[in-house]
Amino acid sequence: MKHYLLPEGGKFYKANMHLHTTVSDGCYTPEDIKKIYMDLGYSILAYTDHEVIVPHTDLTDENFLALTGYEITIWESGSHIDRKVFHLNLIAKEAENNVSSSFRLVDVDQDRQYVTEEMMKYNHPRKYSSECVNEIIESAKKEGFLVSLNHPVWSTQNYTDYADLKGLWATEVYNSASNLGGAIENTQAFEDLVRLHEPVFPLAVDDTHYPFHVGHGWIMVKAHSLDYPTVISALEKGDFYASTGPEIKELYLEEGILHIKTSEAAGIYVTTEKIKRWSAMGTEEEPVTEASFNVSDYVQRTLAGTTNKQAYIRVTVKDFKGEYAYSRAYFLDELAASV
Ligand SMILES: [Zn+2]
Ligand SMILES: [Zn+2]
Predict the structure, then answer these.
(1) Domain shared by 197 and 53, yes or no
(2) Who surrounds ion ligand 2 at CB < 5 A?
(3) What is the pTM of this model?
């Protein structure tokens, strides 16, 4: 029996999960950015302006879904120029939810017109520490938000900054604004967190502020319909992959064999938390578009071991332009039933 890791049913919807508009420091209005992305084949945008949550539900229609969210900033103390910073996105699981206890008025440096009385009830302390960030993540989850860790490399963060975080929904493996600004590689935090057994999903995003950020990083969400609860449910379950180019068309297990179907690729890679890895390589003359790997032994032996009960497999695809697609990590408890 086939066990689909990316759901078999439904269709793929293209989404940019991180952007800024004229509500904060972006150059496009919420309406304009919808048009720009829809013209590029996107169906979903998460509006994540800095520090204030402004739902744009009026923009949602049968072909477009506006997700509600915001981005918060937690600076390291001091005024030195190389301070580290946490940027977190909070994505509301309900379209009209614009209340988060993580709100802090002092951080709203543009457009205070969007601050509501409800937001003013909160003045959350923001300390650059795992404790404070974990407390924010926990509160945000209770208040109905999915929380992502944004562009850790741009933020000059390393393992010591994020290793103790618990309950993140996702972390960015690609951020167009950071990438084009010179913070090129963002995958290490994702790899580190899943190795720590945190079920964190990979996001490729544009973090759109300006026109040249548009259309470089996205996720493909597999869902049965383009309505708010259905898409949030797919996001929460991890029914999506991140990409800067290649497609992951199918991903399933059948009797211990992992099957992967992709767009024309230079490489299809399966990585685990151990040294065990698999790959299939193509050439421009003979690209690979599918690969099958027997992961049964690895899964069985890992399950039989006393440690690494939370080992995982994940898939990366590379195309001939050097662009990548990333599946989430599928942990062994999820895989055990189908090998
Ligand atoms: Zn940011
Ligand atoms: Zn941003």
Answers:
(1) yes
(2) 71, 207
(3) 0.96
